Structures are given as C-alpha cells and as structure tokens.
Amino acid sequence: MTLDLLQTLTTHARQRDFVSIERDEFGARRMHGYVLAVSPGLVMVQPVEDFHLDGLRVLRLADISDVEQTEADRFHQTLMVHEGLEQQVRFGEAFDLRDWPSILRQLAREHDLMILECEAPEDDDFVIGRVGDLGDDAVGFEWFSNTGEWSAVPTEISFERLTCCQVDAPYINVYRRHFERLAKG
User: Where is the domain boundary, 80, 98, 116?
Assistant: First the structure.
C-alpha cells in the first residue's frame, strides 16, 4: 500500500492536482489541497480551507490512509484557478523531505514560528513556537501558550511521535503579528 500511495501522491504532485487526503488513524476530517513534494517518509501539502490557502503542512506518509481526486476536487480546482488562488500555490519549491530534522531545519530558516503536532489519540500534543536544538531523534522546541506567554523551558519532541508540522498558516500569522506589536511597543 505504501508504494502505491507514494506513487499516487507523486503523480498528484507532478500534475498539480487539487486532492482529498485522509488520515483515518487520527479521526480527522479530510484535508483538501495540493501535494507539493513527496518522499518515502514525508509529504508536503498546501492545504486549502474554505478557498483560502492554509499555509504548508508536512505529514508522515505512513499516516495517510487515502488520497484521491474526486469530482468535487476537480470542480474546486477550477474555482481555485478562476479565483486566481492556484497561482499562489507554492509549486516548484524545493523541500528537503529526507527526514524530520532536514525539513524542520529548512522551515526554521524561512519561518520564525511553526506548529508541531503529535496527533495520536492516546498522546495528543499541539505546540506552537520555534525550533531550538535539533538532534537526530528529537527537536527542542521553544513554545508559547494560547495566551501568548513563552514557556521558560523548551519541550523535547521525539521525531517518532511527530505527525505534523505547519508553517505560514493564518493561525500562526495572528500570533506573529501579536509578537511584532509587543516588540514595537
């Protein structure tokens, strides 16, 4: 299944298809958007939520249970083109998806804030902040609370548990503007 899924995702990325992605293990609803890059372990997606680009997400290939382009996806892609949104999709960018340390290092150079998630139902974790120390097995992550207060101690997240990384999402960008206002004040 994984080889077939890898080939399917690669084809959708090459064809720049708007697709639906399922990750059954997490009980999450379908994610819609564009597959930008694929490796045997990780997938870079540009999600679309209510016809708005929703940043970038790195997902583990092993967590994806299905990917398809439905009739609705083809229609939504047409709408994305007509609205001028598809031209904003980050096609053609190079993403280093060899492993978590590689992509986190790349994204940290380009994005000051990110979200890291461990979405397993028995051990769900969501942190927003910035990459600190990157090791072979884990990332030290400097995080802040939902009230915008930085933790005094970074948390360590093992790559084995990490299921998703988000950057440049509207949720993150609101916090970024908050911190920028504080810095100017």
Answer: 98
